[in-house]
Amino acid sequence: MTTQEKEANVEIKKFVASIGITLDRFISQRQQEFPYAKGELSQILRDIGLAAKVVNKAIMGSGLIGIEGPAGERNVQGEEQQKLDVVANMRFIRALTKGQEVCAIISEEDEEMIDTGNHEAKYIVAMDPLDGSSNIDANVPIGTIFSIYRRKSPVGTPPTTEDVLQKGANQVAGGYVLYGSSMILTYTTGYGVNGFTYDHTIGEFILSYPNMKIKELGSIFSYNEGNYNDFSEGTKAYLTYCRNQKYTARYIGSLVADFHRNLLKGGIFFYPATSKSPNGKLRLLYECNSLAFVIEQAGGKATDGKRRILDIEPHDIHQRSPLIIGSSAMVDDVMQFIKNEQFH
Questions:
Q1: Which of 197, 248, 269, 289 is most buried, judging by how many CB atoms fall within 10 Å of its CB?
Q2: Binding site membership: which residues?
Q3: For residue 170, what are the domain limits?
Q4: Cα distance between the two ends of the chain
Q5: How distant is the alpha carbon of residue 331 from its chain centre?
Q6: pTM, two decimal places
Q7: Annotated binding site for substrate, which residues?
Q8: How many domains does the chain have?
C-alpha cells in the first residue's frame, strides 16, 4: 500500500468512525430499569432534549433577533423576567404538552400549576426553564433545571396539588441543561448520572460524561460574596476555613454553571439561610430537588443546613430553601460549622 493510499484510508476511517451513543439510543437501552413505565418516561426526556435544542438556538441568536434584555414584567418570584425567560418557558411547556406524557407542569415563570390537558398521562414535571437568564446579555453560561415525578392522583382525572407537592426523594428523574460554549444535558433516573454534549453538525446529544462522580473532597467553594454580612457566624467561620485551606473561590452567578463545574472538578456550592432570608432563596421543587438528586447519584450530598434536601416535605410550589451542595466531605464540614448556630 502506497503512502497516498494509507493517508486516504486514515481519512476514510475518520469519517466512518463511531459518533458515540446518542441520547435517544441511551434512553432506549436503559428502558429496562423502569418496568412500570412503557416508554412514557423516555418520551419526556426526549421532549426535554428537543425543547433544549430549540431554546439553545434562540440563545445563540438572541443578540441578532432582538430577544435579549428584560421583558418588562416580573414573574411570581418578583424577579424581572427576561425575554428569553418567556421564550424558554413557552418552548418547554409546548414540547411537554405535545409529547402527551405529562399531565401537569410547575414552572418558575408561572404562579399556578399548569394542567396540560393530558389527563391520561402519568407524570409531573417541575422546571426552571432558564436559570441565570439575567446573565445572557453578558454571554455567561445559563441553564434549564428539571424534575420528573409520577402523579399520585388516578390516571384519567385532572392533576391535583398533591401531585406536584412531592418531596425530592420521590423523583423518577432529574437533571439540567447547560447552555455555554457547548450545550450539555445531564440527568439521572436513580441509576447514576450521565451527561450528553450536543453535536450541532448532526443535531444529536452524544454521551460524553458517562457515570459521572464527584470527588469526595474538592478544592472549590462557590458563594455570593455580596451576602457575606448576612451570613451566620458558623457560615463565616467555614469561609475562613476554606481560605485557610487554600481552596479556590469560584462563583459564576448561574446556578447550573456553578453546579456543573463543581460536579466535574469537586467542590461545594452554597446559598445558605441568611439573616435577611432565613428560608433561603432558591426554589425547592424545581432547583434544589433536581440538583440534589443528581449530586447524590454522583456520590455527593445536599442539605439545607439542617436536613437532607430530598427529605423536605413541600407545602408550596414556589417554596424556597437554603442549599448547600457538592462534595460529601465538604458538605459535612459546613454542617459541622453551622451546627447549632445563631444569627447575630
A1: 289
A2: 108, 128, 130-134, 224, 251, 281, 287
A3: 19-209
A4: 80
A5: 19
A6: 0.89
A7: 131-134, 224, 251, 281
A8: 2
